[in-house]
Amino acid sequence: MQERPRVVVVGGGIAGLEAATNLAERGVSVTLVERAPRLGGNGLTVCCKAIDGGCQLCGGCLLMERLAAVGHLPRVRILTETTVKAAVPQNGGFSLFLSGASAPADPLTADAVIVATGFDPVDARTKGPYGYGLLPMVTTGEEVERRLRLEGQGAYDGLGAARVAFVQCVGSRDEHASRGYCSQVCCRYALRLARLLRARNPELQVSVFKMDIQHGGRDFAACWQAASADGIRFVAGLPAVVRRSTANPEAATFIYDNILGDTVRQEDFDLVVLSVGMQPRGDATQVADIWGINRDRFGFFAADEETRTLVPGVFVAGSCQAPRALAESAAHARRAAEACYRYLAEGRS
Length: 349
Ligand SMILES: Cc1cc2nc3c(=O)[nH]c(=O)nc-3n(C[C@H](O)[C@H](O)[C@H](O)COP(=O)(O)OP(=O)(O)OC[C@H]3O[C@@H](n4cnc5c(N)ncnc54)[C@H](O)[C@@H]3O)c2cc1C
Ligand code: SF4
Ligand code: SF4
Prior knowledge:
Layout: E1 6-10, H1 14-25, E2 29-33, H2 60-70, E3 76-79, E4 82-90, E5 93-100, E6 108-110, E7 112-115, E8 119-121, E9 138-140, H3 141-151, E10 163-170, H4 186-200, E11 205-210, H5 220-229, E12 233-236, E13 239-244, E14 252-258, E15 263-269, E16 271-276, E17 278-280, H6 284-291, E18 314-316, H7 326-345
Parallel strand pairs: 1-2, 1-7, 2-3, 7-18, 9-16, 10-11, 10-16, 11-12
Antiparallel strand pairs: 4-5, 5-6, 8-17, 13-14, 14-15
Helix pairs in contact: 1-2, 1-7, 4-5
This protein binds flavin-adenine dinucleotide and iron/sulfur cluster (2 copies).
């Protein structure tokens, strides 16, 4: 391998940070290009879900650890509020043209690139019958995470004996919306949020409406058992419609099919949390075109052998390739960094 190869990582969420850290530790010179004013990506929304100081292993700490580490790495240059607007193949690598606040005047030279541009949370408005944006008692998992993060764990204290419903698979597993995939994270965050809210409001009545529960991830089984032991009710079925209650205008009425009971039911809730999933970024086509990489049938970036695209020297990492939680995005990014390093070490083949 030549002395100190140069890699550009595009996107400074957990995946980009992990890839940059991993490569820098191997002696590679890394430039991390992030279009937002600060690093962290969507993981910055994730709140701590510890109950009375007891960690629920939600993964939120991982991002903080990576953010703290990346600033101390001598071989990582960070360019925020900047993006890559064009890439030209050159000498087996790339000449990159940047735009934004930290863009250098001359093109940047890279021997390889890792694209880690992440995902967009599903916009709950696209699920019209659930009334998000119209009914004030209907919120999303993303909003609950953000509020707990910004205001602290007491943000929802005082709910008393309110009836709270979580609705799973909002915007995921929906072939009609071209999102037939499972988003992987919404069962985990919803159950942990439900447990946290209930721990802080012991009278709270929590129901989780689901098709089934995604059991992936470290320690999920324990979380699931704990949720059941906490008295959280699981309902096999999703509401067809959520509308304002006629009995109490501050509540929402669910009309749903109870799959197991084979009956149509109606029930009121004071707070509704839509468990929104992950989707490809709105500008994924433009980003794919810059690098000449393919997308899969849902719009995520396609990779051969998981992290290698069909374009030599271009790798993908994290949730831009498939829905992943923080720990899985970081693990995927380590595999992308490994594949990228091998590619450089083997003379870019
Ligand atoms: C509601 C919700 C709750 C969640 N809760 C949890 C949880 O409790 N635990 C958990 O483990 N996971 C959770 N997740 C998932 C978590 O957010 C993701 O796993 C994680 O953010 C993926 O990291 P990433 O680096 O792949 O992408 P992102 O976090 O999306 O980061 C991508 C970065 O790339 C930047 N970028 C994008 N395009 C460009 C471009 N063209 N040029 C330069 N930069 C660009 C973005 O600004 C961003 O900083 C949750 C997700 C949602 C939607
Ligand atoms: S992993 Fe999650 S619950 Fe545990 S301490 Fe970290 S942020 Fe809090
Ligand atoms: S993680 Fe759970 S809520 Fe999210 S899409 Fe998969 S099954 Fe549905």
